[in-house]
Each structure stands twice: as C-alpha cells, then as structure tokens.
Amino acid sequence: EKNWKGKICCIGAGYVGGPTCSVIAIKCPDYKVSIVDVNPHRIAAWNSDDLPIYEPGLDDVVKACRNRNLFFTTDVDGAIVESDIIFVSVNTPTKKHGLGSGMAADLTYIESACRRIAQVATSSKIVVEKSTVPCRTAESMRAILEANSRNGIRFDILSNPEFLAEGTAITDLFGPDRVLIGSLQTPEGLAAQKALADVYAHWVPRDRIITMNLWSSELSKLAANALLAQRISSINSLSALCEATGADVDEVAFAVGKDSRIGPKFLKASVAFGGSCFQKDILNLVYLCESLHLKEVAEYWRQVVVINEYQKQRFVRRIVHALFDTVTSKKICLLGFAFKKNTGDTRESAAIGLAKYFMDEDANVHIYDPKVTDEQILMDLSEPGISSGIEEVKKKITIFKDAYSAAEDADALVICTEWDEFKALDYQTIYQAMKKPAFIFDGRLLLDASELRKIGFKVETIGKPSPATRGY
Ligand code: UDX
Ligand code: UDX
Ligand code: ADP
Fold first, then answer.
1. Final residue of a structural domain among 204, 230, 259
2. Angle between the 374-382 and 350-360 helix axes, to the nearest 10 degrees?
3. Which of 34, 140, 357, 424 has an alpha carbon within 20 to 30 A of 21's alpha carbon?
4. Count of beta carbons in the 10 Å neighbourhood of residue 174
5. How far apart are CA 332 and CA 407, in angstroms?
6. Residue 459 placed within a domain
7. Residue 181: band (very low, low, confident or very high) from pLDDT cuts 50, 70, 90
C-alpha cells in the first residue's frame, strides 16, 4: 500500500461528511480518506455515477479522487482501526420524544459512533466532532471514549464545526471564511489541534485557521447559525410591516445593507428559512439556555423561530384571501420544494409547511421541483403533523416533471424555492394554460411583478404591498 502521510476516516456519509471529506481528499493527495456509513445504499450511491446528494461541483471532486485516495465503504471498523484522525459527522436530529422533545438534539448516533471507536481502536486517535451539536457534546464524547478505552489508548477530542451552506458546499469548502478548531488547552489537546490544522493548511491560509478552546468552538457554531437566522427573521418581520404600509422590503434591505456595520448578506426576505441547521440550532440554543436557567436569553432566541412560523402562516393567509377566501378544490401549484436553490434537500423546507396548510384546506396541490425526488416529497408530506398519512397525500398532491405541466389548469402559482429556472419560464404560455384570474404568489421575491402584470397575472410578493391584500 502507498506510504500515506496520514489516514483520515469520516463516520457518516451525509450532507456534511460527504462533501467535506471529499474536498479534504482532493486537497490532500498525501492522505488516505475513507468515508464510512452504516447505510449500504448510501455508500453504494457514493460509489456510483449517481451520488446520493446533489451539490454543484461535487461530482468532479469525487471523480477526481475516488479509489485513488478517497474511499467510500461500509467497513466502519476497518477504517477506524487504520486512521489517525476520525471525523464524526453523523446525524443529530431534534429529539422526538422524552426530555427536551422537539428542542434538544438526539445524540444517539454520536454516542454509538463513539462507542464503536472506543471498542475497535487499537491505537490512539484524534476524534473530531464535525456534526453540529450543542455546546459540551465534546465533553460527553470524551467521557464515553475515555471510559471505554483500553491498553493506554488515547483519544483527543477536537471540535471542528462545519460552516458550509448547501448548494454552495464545494465553493464554501474550497475557500472558507475560516476553519475553526477547538481543543482542550493541554499539551496533547494542542498537538491534536496542530495535526488537524496541518490538514487544512494544504489549502486554507494559516490566518484563516482559528484555534480556541472546545466550548468556544462549539458555541460559535450555534451562535453563527442563530445570528444568520435572526437576520432572516428580522427582515421577514419587516416584510409584514412593508406589506401593511406600502414600503418595499427589497428597497429597505438594500438601504440597510449599505451600512457596512450591517452588510448586505442574509437580508433577503422569504417565505421562511428552512434547512437542517437553522431551526435545529436555535432550538438547541434555547434548550441550552433554559437548562442553565437563562430564561430571558432563551425567549430572545425562541422568537426567531416564532417569526419564521408566523411568516409561513401569514403568506398562506394572504394567498387564501386573494383567492376569494377559499382554496377548496382549487389547483395550487407549488414551484420548488427544496429549502433553497441548488440542492435536493428538503429538511425543514418552507414548501412542506405551505403544502400542509393547502392540504388542510382541501386544495389540489401540484408540485414541481427540479431536484427533489417524488419519493422524498411523498415521504415529507406523509409525516405526522403534516397530514394523516400517505393516503391523504396521494389524494391531494400531484407531482410533475416540469413547471409547465404543473401549472396547467392551476388557479395559482406559488414560488417556494428560488430556482434560477423559474426566472426563465415562458410565463405567457403558462398564463394561457391557467384558470383566470391567474395568480402568482412570489415567496422568494424572484420574479419581475410588473412584467407578469402586463401578461395579465395578479401578482402578490412577500414584503411588497398590494391593495388587494394589505394587512394580510
Ligand atoms: C446610532 C447609530 O449607530 C447611528 O447610525 C444613528 O444615526 C444614531 O444611532 P449612536 O447612538 O450615536 O449612533 O452610537 P453607536 O455607535 O451606534 O452606539 C450606540 C450604543 O451602542 C452605545 O451605547 C455603544 O456603546 C453601544 N454599542 C455599540 C455596543 O454596546 N456594542 C457595539 O458593538 C456597538
Ligand atoms: C446554513 C449556514 O449558512 C451554514 O453556514 C451552516 O453550516 C449550515 O446552515 P444552509 O442551511 O445550508 O446553511 O443554507 P443557507 O444558505 O444558510 O440558507 C438557509 C435558509 O435560509 C434557506 O431556506 C434560505 O432560502 C433562507 N435564506 C437565506 C433566506 O430566506 N434569506 C436569506 O437572505 C438567506
Ligand atoms: P448531515 O446533514 O449532518 O450530514 P445526514 O443525515 O445527511 O446528516 O448524514 C448522516 C449519516 O450518518 C447518515 O448517512 C447515517 O447513516 C450515518 N450514520 C449515523 N450513525 C452512524 C454510525 N454509528 N456509523 C456510521 N454511520 C452512521
């Protein structure tokens, strides 16, 4: 076998582990990188031409190094044994029952990965916490690993939170704003920190590799996501005010963002933020604050999630009102189902919430998304709390392969995801095929409303006033 400078294992071949460690592999040809998962279908997909996640640029990265220094395998134990550095990037869903239900992170998968590492390791390891996890998880990982280690094997725990955003994962990983590595401030902890920094230094400038203590590093990840989400809830709360008063939220965001202390990013009003991280991380933060009896702090952050839900309900109320206060048996066409463009991921997508409200109103919901699979849509909408199950979903939901057929005969189009292709549609053709009056509800401030009005559409845009629905 080749004389590798080091061997890296990544436990969990998901949205975080897969792209992150593929980029490490392409940037560090002197390291052997094994990405392992307990799910054989996922691993098979990573080894095929049809990767399990859609992410622009990912295919090229994987193709360039797969089976050279990048390996996808279900042999979790084998990869643990041979590696010096082990990334743990398993899923950390929100708990569905028991203490902290609906808020706290479920650390079952982290714990079982750690127990596995302790059980099979035959030499010392650097174990890197890569999943987003609430503050002080590294401490639990350390306790499990130390209590189960044998024959003087050392485990040094590092926190190395991931800041990539889906849809831009590869560019984010190639040129990160910063890489954050937290460790215990002991000689061993600092040595482990340096070993991981040396990996990133293959392509990240040293001054962007930031080191700090474990708890600061873990909390920084929660804080970053909470502050980003807070900006969206702030602009979304203002979008309600804009609709009620006659201001235009895009203009307000533009003006505000010019202040260099505020900056222009993450001020785009929308139907709501989604994704696997924002809501989960804020709820983790709220739970953490509550556990520490910081009631006011918990309430402050909880409000970010409250506004996000409010925004979805508000949009639906506005749609129903515009459609003459009833959508029963009407065809409502949702364009986009992913939580943002350039991903097939639907976790916490606003479209799920909208579809739920329309199903509750007995509408016929047409759905088209360029990247989300039919199975995923049906599964998301069959969840408890969304519908009564697959029977109801199959009755009320129809999934289409293109926007034009989804829009045929529809009373309204609802833009849920800001896919570029929705900007380029031939709206003249769509208009002709729709029921009249034909409505477009733009939940992403994506389309040119004045052009659409020239065609004949009635257009309602988040954060933009409309006489018909003022105050809704
Ligand atoms: C503010 C706005 O900055 C300015 O654009 C507007 O025109 C008027 O209101 P001002 O109140 O004069 O200006 O000062 P500013 O620098 O914004 O500070 C306001 C308060 O926030 C001060 O008490 C300051 O100490 C505090 N502050 C500011 C912090 O506690 N932390 C910070 O990071 C920044
Ligand atoms: C986020 C963080 O950006 C990333 O750093 C972290 O590692 C994981 O969580 P992600 O959820 O993948 O990434 O995507 P992001 O671009 O942050 O978008 C999250 C949601 O906010 C999407 O639904 C997006 O549409 C929405 N959004 C984003 C807005 O509504 N307005 C904005 O201005 C920005
Ligand atoms: P994320 O968005 O955090 O990457 P994903 O759900 O996409 O989350 O990926 C997490 C992956 O971790 C899943 O593919 C899951 O099968 C895998 N996984 C969970 N627990 C273990 C474990 N103990 N060993 C190996 N893989 C695991």
1. 204
2. 60
3. 140
4. 14
5. 8
6. yes
7. very high
The question of whether 289 is a catalytic residue gets the answer no
Q: Is the CB of 17 under 6 A from ligand 3?
A: yes
Burial of 342 (C-beta count, 10 Å sphere; 0-12/13-18/19+): buried
Q: How many domains does the chain have?
A: 2
Q: Which of 336, 334, 321, 384 is nearest to 364 (CA)?
A: 334
Chain centroid, CA 273 distance in Å = 9
Q: Are strands 179-183 and 155-159 parallel, antiparallel or unpaired?
A: antiparallel
Task: Look at ligand 2, atom 11, and give the residue with the nearest C-alpha.
Answer: 275
Residues 118-135, mean pLDDT to the nearest whole number: 91
**Confidence check: pLDDT of 389 > 90:** yes
Residue nearest to atom 7 of ligand 3 (CA): 14
Render pLDDT for 336-358 as a digit per residue (tens, 0 to 9): 999 999 999 999 999 999 999 99
> Can you tell me the mean pLDDT for 36-61?
97
Sequence letter at residue 405: S
329 annotated as belonging to a binding site for a ligand: no
| Closest listed ligand to the CA of 265 | 2
| Other Cβ atoms closer than 10 A to 153 | 16
State yes or no: 347 annotated in a binding site.
yes
CB of 367 closer than 6 angstroms to any ligand 3 atom? no
Task: Look up the ipTM and state it.
Answer: 0.94
Q: 274 a known binding residue?
A: yes
The model's pTM: 0.95
Arithmetic mean of pLDDT, 419-443: 98
CA of 274 from ligand 2 middle (Å) equals 7
Range of the domain at 388: 278-469
Taking the C-alpha atoms of residue 372 and residue 216, their distance in angstroms, rounded to an integer, is 36
Residue whose tokens read 């606003």: 350
Q: Is residue 252 part of a domain?
A: no
Residue 123, domain member (yes or no):
yes
Q: How long is the chain?
A: 472
State the CATH number of the domain containing residue 449.
Answer: 3.40.50.720
Ligand 2 atom nearest the C-alpha of 281 is 9
Q: What is the pLDDT of residue 469?
A: 67
Which residues fall within 8 angstroms of residue 460, CB to CB, at 6 or more apart?
318, 319, 322, 439, 440, 441, 442, 466, 468, 469
| CA distances (Å), origin 448, targets 17, 334, 415, 424 | 38, 18, 12, 11
Residue 77 within any structural domain of the chain: yes
